[in-house]
Design brief:
single chain, 242 residues, alpha/beta, Cobalt-precorrin-4 Transmethylase, domain 1, Methyltransferase, Cobalt-precorrin-4 Transmethylase, Domain 2, 2 domains, five-stranded parallel sheet, 7 helices, 30% helix, globular
């Protein structure tokens, strides 16, 4: 019996109309669908794919053992997550070895700061693993501002809000255009870094980009210290143009 294939399918930033034709076809025809989620939650990827999935599809929820409970620099974090990915791959292998194909739903693009890459690196040597690219969340965010993110020779930098404040500030000072992701509880730190880098007044905050509850705000006009997980901050480049 031939082994099954694993498909990492990018679902894009949130609007189902932005899925690729191939992604749509794979999800609709999938007999086994796996997806990551926080324990007790349905998961954004699963929620997005809901109108496409076959009613009889076998679902494999892959629930993170930790999210923010353990600091990223704590050795336990990688140990716990590493074991989680090993256990998850063991579950997927039982189906792949039996000749069954699996579609893994991925928020945004599978190869852009996504969890799927941890499955890919562990399974690619033994199985046929295919990746279906998608529009990234940051692309949806800067498009929501109705302004180009880069001009001419602008250098674009993508930063994670989980970085320490000094690293954030230094990186912000050395770029022309900027995207900051994984903000959530890191928002006060990111906001201060933007202020220290003299980018605060140029920054835009996009919550739930391309989703029904999308909200676009100038950062300087936002009040409060808390933002939802699906928040991206962008600073547009001002490079050369004709």
């Amino acid at each position: 019996m031939s082994m099954g294939s694993l498909y990492g399918v990018g679902l894009g930033p949130g609007d189902i109309d932005l899925l690729s034709v191939r992604a749509d076809r794979l999800v609709r025809n999938a007999k086994i669908i796996a997806y990551f989620r926080k324990a007790g939650k349905k998961g954004q990827a699963r929620r997005l794919a809901d109108p496409l999935m076959h009613v009889d599809a076998l679902e494999i929820p892959m629930e993170y053992p930790v999210t923010t409970e353990i600091p990223l620099d704590d050795p336990r974090y990688n140990k716990v997550l590493g074991q989680f990915y090993e256990d998850t791959c063991a579950t997927l292998r039982t189906h792949l070895d039996a000749g069954r194909d699996i579609v893994v739903l991925c928020e945004g693009d599978p190869f852009f700061y996504g969890s799927f890459m941890h499955l890919h690196s562990r399974l690619m040597a033994d199985y046929n693993v295919e990746v279906v690219p998608a529009i990234t969340g940051m692309s949806g965010a800067w498009t929501a501002t109705n302004q180009p993110i880069t001009w001419g020779d602008d250098i674009l930098t993508v930063l994670m809000g989980t970085l320490d404040q000094d690293t954030l500030t230094a990186s912000m000072k050395s770029t022309d255009a900027l995207v900051v992701m994984k903000i959530g509880t890191n928002f006060p730190k990111v906001r201060q870094a933007l202020n220290d880098a003299n980018l605060y007044d140029r920054a835009w905050m996009v919550q739930y980009a391309t989703m029904p509850d999308q909200k676009v705000t100038k950062l300087s006009e936002f009040e409060g210290d808390k933002v939802p997980y699906f928040t991206i901050i962008v600073v547009h480049g001002q490079g050369r143009r004709p």
